[in-house]
């Protein structure tokens, strides 16, 4: 008896993404071994023609105008709500991702593992180099390591949240969370964990979702045989977005831990950003201001 192909719905959240969306959709056209039931392009009030671009492909595309730029999580929630019929899993995907022809099939096979609720691929930069995307759960020691050791902390057991050890890149396994640019989430896990938290706007919403999934017994599994090229990088050059990322990281830790631990985490992160600001890094200066002056924090996204 032939095993039916996994039914995959795709949700792509766009915001002024017309220049990269076509490449993403083109890579979805070539997927083998799965049945794409819907490709929802949830557009957060783009000023370009992102939704028009979405209509020009041989895919079951559902253009969805969210109506406002409420953030990544809001786009995902709206996109999932718009998926018609039944599906086995939802692929959450950034518009600047490019999939190999077997990517979705490999990720779908990974979801067959016991308790696996989220499957994530190996991410690559445009030049083919490895893009670190796997993380351990945030702790005070890891916050200290990343504040004062930087990316080196990822090579030291227990001292880094972002895993940078090159020996990890080709080893499948379970992790606490991963970059939200590409995640295949089983329908069962999605129903059990519930909606993504829209209060984060951007950054840490994938951390929150993955950690909540872990709280409920679901495993996030890394499958390096499934590869995706991820262009990305805006956070690295935009001080305002970097500041939002830092603030959200602290907010998430505080929500999940005691007031004492949350206060200590805040001070460690603040010390690390202050040190980087003293070294002349503009992104760190913006983060320090956002941490110390809540009134200066980004509370709404551009429209």
From TrEMBL:
InterPro entries to which the protein is assigned, alphabetical: Glyco_trans_2-like, Nucleotide-diphossugar_trans
Q: Which Pfam families does the record cross-reference, listed alphabetically?
A: Glycos_transf_2
Record-given protein name: Glycosyltransferase family 2 protein
Give the originating organism: Hamadaea flava
Q: Which Gene3D superfamilies match?
A: Spore Coat Polysaccharide Biosynthesis Protein SpsA, Chain A (3.90.550.10)
Q: Tell me the domain of life.
A: Bacteria
Q: Which PANTHER family match?
A: RHAMNOSYLTRANSFERASE WBBL
Q: Describe the location of the Glycosyltransferase 2-like domain by residue ranges.
A: 10-128
Its lineage reads:
Bacteria, Bacillati, Actinomycetota, Actinomycetes, Micromonosporales
